[in-house]
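[job 0417] fold request received: Torsin-1A C-terminal domain-containing protein
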Amino acid sequence: MLLKLTEGVQLSLMISAMLLKLTDIGNASETHRRGTAEPEGPPDHLIEYAQMARADFFKFESISNVSTYYFNYIYCNIWEGDCQPHQDDASQQVPIGDMWSGFPQYYSGILRAWYCTLGQCCDSGDCRITNNLTGLERDLQVKLHGQHLVQSVVLKAIQGFIKNPDSNKPLTLSFHGWSGTGKNFVARIVADNLYRDGIKSECVRLFIAPFHFPHVRLVDVYKGQLREAIRDIVLRCPQTLFIFDEAEKLHPGLIDAIKPYMDHYDNVDGVSYRRAIFLFLSNIGGAAINEVALDFWHSGQNREDIGMEDLEHLLQAEAMEANGGFAQSELMSGHLIDFFVPFLPLEYRHVKLCAHDAYAARGVQPDEGTLDEVAKAMLYVPKEEKLFSAQGCKSIPQRINFFLP
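[job 0417] inference complete; emitting structure tokens
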């Protein structure tokens, strides 16, 4: 029956249901059942807002995806229609953030709380967000190789941020190191453990500098597009993860345009960004990191003895002096990066571990000889020591094809 409703009736039902709850759904429905009086009318300003809202928020094609249970509940309990029995179907447990994104945050919060009283919400209040900190710790320890500093800093930074609901600014991390050392891999691990749908979540947005912002002459256009994109996604999902890959290639004006979103503001144009997470990935400082790792090796020290005190200030100086927009932006001069995270160059033993993981992902259990063959096929630098993999582990998943039976 509901599927045959006209679009105008659908809109009316939606707004009526929302407003009934806002004015006390229980009393309104009871009064309506007794026939003693008409339910109290909704606030004029909310009606006006609903009428002005973009039509795509209220198209039945998208609304129907939210929950059959939701509509049955309204129809059965408010208008006492010819009800369909409720099916406790997990597929109906769809997050409601998107369909409320056109409403002011105050009303969105009320409506979200109402929806949760129907038993269709997760403990976090948003089914899109999992914040699996135990899984994050496990994945960083098990899946990431040769990066003890990353394992410690990223875990502690995100744990502290997630557990502190009163953070005075978004979390901003800058990942530095050679290509193939795991920067994108760690960003994906973070996404997989903080969000139900991982990197594909609507709460995660990846920007690749040369792909999304290729033309310097269009930087003013990109500024507006980027500001609008960030605002829209944070309205839909306050705990958004923004990933900027190849950040050293961003135009300085582009970074400056979004600098207010990472600063110590309660809100920007009525929107709070304090629960957002920004990750900047770049190759800046890669050579300096490698020099420190090589010096430790020459002095007979373990790479695990390298501490943040050996690298973070060095990275900060490198980042501020490097060519490109990232170094010249107010993000650097304003000291808005919370942690400069160094990714160390990977050695032969780490390449073997990456190869083992790549085989395991295909259901193959390789022997030591096969792993050695894969690792030996990589190029190692410097020329004399041949200590570090020039490509890290980046090409390993493709290279093992050559060694598969």
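[job 0417] notes: The two ends are 58 Å apart (CA to CA). The CA atoms of residues 169 and 265 lie 7 Å apart.
[job 0417] exit 0
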